[in-house]
Amino acid sequence: MFDINTLSATYLELNGAQYHVRDSQVGEECVLLIHGWPDNSLMWEKQVPALAEAGYRVICPDLLGYGLSEAPEETERYTLANLLNDFVTLVEKLGLKKIHCIAHDYGAVLGWELASHSKNLNLNLKSYTAMSVGNLGEFFKISTENLQMQWIYFLNTQDIAPQLYRANNGYFFREVLRSHPNRDLIVENALKSGVFENMQRLEKANQVPEYLLAVLTGQIPDLLTIKVPTLGIWSNKDDFMWESQMKNSDQYISAQWQYECIEGAGHWFMLEQPERTNQLLLSWLGKHR
Questions:
Q1: From CA 165, how far away is CA 191, in angstroms rounded?
Q2: How distant, in Å, are the alpha carbons of 64, 83, 171 from that of 181?
Q3: Which residues are CB-neighbours of 204 under 8 A, at least 6 positions away?
Q4: What is the mean pLDDT of residues 54-82?
Q5: Helix, strand, or coil here: 35?
Q6: Among 46, 188, 268, 270, which one is least packed by beta carbons within 10 Å?
Q7: Would you place residue 179 in the very low, low, confident or very high pLDDT band (cuts 50, 70, 90)?
Q8: Are the CB atoms for 278 and 50 separated by under 8 Å?
């Protein structure tokens, strides 16, 4: 039986930065799993066995600044454009021909970029699954509902945020992660020296307030139409994301779109309800082999 801890683990140099990558190395079609904040590739522990046993090659990288991947000091290195380029290089270095992408949280933001640019980059992306975070066109729509949920994306770009999260043995951080099934492990790791600062660079390089200002002043470029079959999964107990930003993402997609809501689960539904999540994933992937 496949287990995420028994996957082959290696370091790949992608455009000058060392990425830690877990890889099952077996399977003609590849599933690229991209985690978000404040996790690392281990968050896919419940999905790896199901996907690998279904015959997919499973690849789980740690994002730059997260887990065991390198954490360059230059904030500019973490822009979406640079991270997108890193993942294109990863695909090329591993010689991946048929790819499915499944991504969560900030990883889903990067996944939407992969899906948007896949045709131009000659990536054979057969399907994309966005978890929790919908298309940025919906995420950046200005409304009271949206702004009430976006507080954390403003906080996380502040210089004081790492101190706030570490204070009193991570008290505030524990409250923010109250719905995370692996909260204690995440907090224990995050309290280590420099971890919060490393994770924060991605958010400082892609600041939500700057995007919102660009939207309000008409300076944001038109979004590319996504021509990749896309599955969007949201959960109705999510503390950070609202339903419309996922459910209404269909207007940016010209290929097949499917929306699913997992009832009774929070932001990390893949850990809370792995059987339901895996059922949805395998059914979706099976339609696009």
A1: 8
A2: 23, 28, 16
A3: 75, 78, 157
A4: 97
A5: coil
A6: 188
A7: very high
A8: yes
Query: How far from 249 is each of 35, 131, 222, CA to CA, in Å?
Result: 20, 12, 15
Return d(Cα 94, Cα 79) in angstroms, integer. Answer: 23
Percent of the chain at pLDDT exceeding 90 = 87
pTM over 0.90: yes
CB atoms within 10 A of CB 112: 28
Q: Are 25 and 96 in contact (CB under 8 A)?
A: no
Residue owning tokens 């057969």: 126
pLDDT attached to residue 237: 97
d(C-alpha 18, C-alpha 40), whole Å: 15
Within 8 A by CB and 6+ apart from 195, the residues are: 189
By DSSP bridging, strand 57-61 and strand 29-34 are: parallel
Reduced to 3 states (helix: H, G, I; strand: E, B; else coil), residue 33 is strand
* Across 201-227, average pLDDT: 92
In degrees and rounded to multiples of 5, residue 58 shows phi and psi of -105, 125
Q: Residue 103's closest CA among 270, 228, 253, 261?
A: 270
- Element holding 271 (H helix, E strand): helix 269-272
Nearest-10 crossing angle of helices 161-176, 183-190: 170
Question: Pairing between strand 230-235 and 257-262?
Answer: parallel
User: Cα-flanking dihedrals φ and ψ of residue 163, to 5°?
Assistant: -65, -40
Q: What residues contact 168, with CB distance under 8 A and at least 6 apart?
A: none
Q: Is the Cβ–Cβ distance between 233 and 131 less than 8 Å?
A: yes
